[in-house]
Amino acid sequence: MAGAWPPRRRSGHNDGMGDMLTLEEWAARHGYGPDTVRNQWSVRDDFPTHKRHRPRVGSGARSEEYDADELDTWLTHWHQHRRPTPHSVPEHPDEYRTLGAIARLLGLDGKTVTQYRALMDEHAEHEDRGQRRYYRTRDVVTALNARPGHGRTTDPDTDRRRKP
User: Fold this and answer.
1) Does 95 share its domain with 148?
2) What does the alpha-carbon distance between residue 6 and residue 31 come to, in Å, rounded to a whole number?
3) Whole-model pTM over 0.70
4) What was the pLDDT predicted at 133?
5) Rounded to whole angstroms, how far apart are CA atoms 137 and 103?
6) Cβ-contact 137, 89 below 8 angstroms
7) In which residue ranges is the amino acid composition biased (Basic and acidic residues) (predicted)?
8) pLDDT by residue (tens digit) across 43-95?
9) Which residues pair with 100 in a beta bridge?
10) Is residue 2 part of a domain?
């Protein structure tokens, strides 16, 4: 498409940098709100600095352009450090236990595990014994270790925090 802004820029045409985009464009690319990126992330000391300014359009302010590769690397690092602590599978991993018993076995507060009851029902083998539901310990620990981390949902389609 001729005349589209921003023009696609690739390494080799940009002094060794990748795509150049504004924080708003990068936020939209990853499904985050621009205010979150600008107000919470870009003020961090470890956040990449802008590389240049985009030429002014009309009388508006100049926009800062960032290297998309640097931003993507930073985001990957950010998510890795916010992942929950992995839990090791305890003795007798195929034994069936309640979620509360599994939480105690892992040294966690019961709510840490029971808040994921729907996820456990989907991904962990379980059986009902009267009023109680018992889950295979290994499956619960595996599901807990697969959580994406603080501030991220297991089902992006139901995340009310993300902008549509």
Assistant:
1) yes
2) 19
3) no
4) 94
5) 10
6) yes
7) 152-164
8) 989 999 999 988 887 887 788 999 999 999 999 888 888 777 888 888 899 99
9) none
10) no
Give dist(CA 96, CA 127) in Å, integer. Answer: 8
Domain count, the chain: 2
User: Would you state the structure tokens that stand for residue 56, as one six-digit string?
Assistant: 């002014």
For residue 10, is it within any domain?
no
Query: Exposed e or buried b for every residue in 99-125, given b needs 16+ CB within 10 A?
Result: bebbbebbeeeeeebeebeebbeebbe
Q: Give the CATH number, domain containing residue 142.
A: 1.10.1660
Confirm whether 3 is domain-assigned.
no
Q: Could you give the dihedral angle defined by the CA atoms of residues 14, 15, 21 and 27, in that order, rounded to the nearest 10 degrees?
A: 130
Do residues 72 and 104 both lie within one domain? no
Residues 126, 95 within the same domain:
yes
Max Cα–Cα distance, the chain, nearest Å: 71
Question: In this structure, is the dihedral angle defined by the CA atoms of residues 93, 96, 97 and 99, taken in order, positive or negative?
Answer: positive
CA separation for the pair 13, 16 (Å, rounded)? 7
Helices (H) and strands (E) in the chain, counts: 7, 6
Q: Which two tokens stand for residue 121?
A: 């029902």
Which range marks the domain in which residue 48 is found? 20-53+64-81
The whole-angstrom separation of Cα 117 and Cα 103 is 12
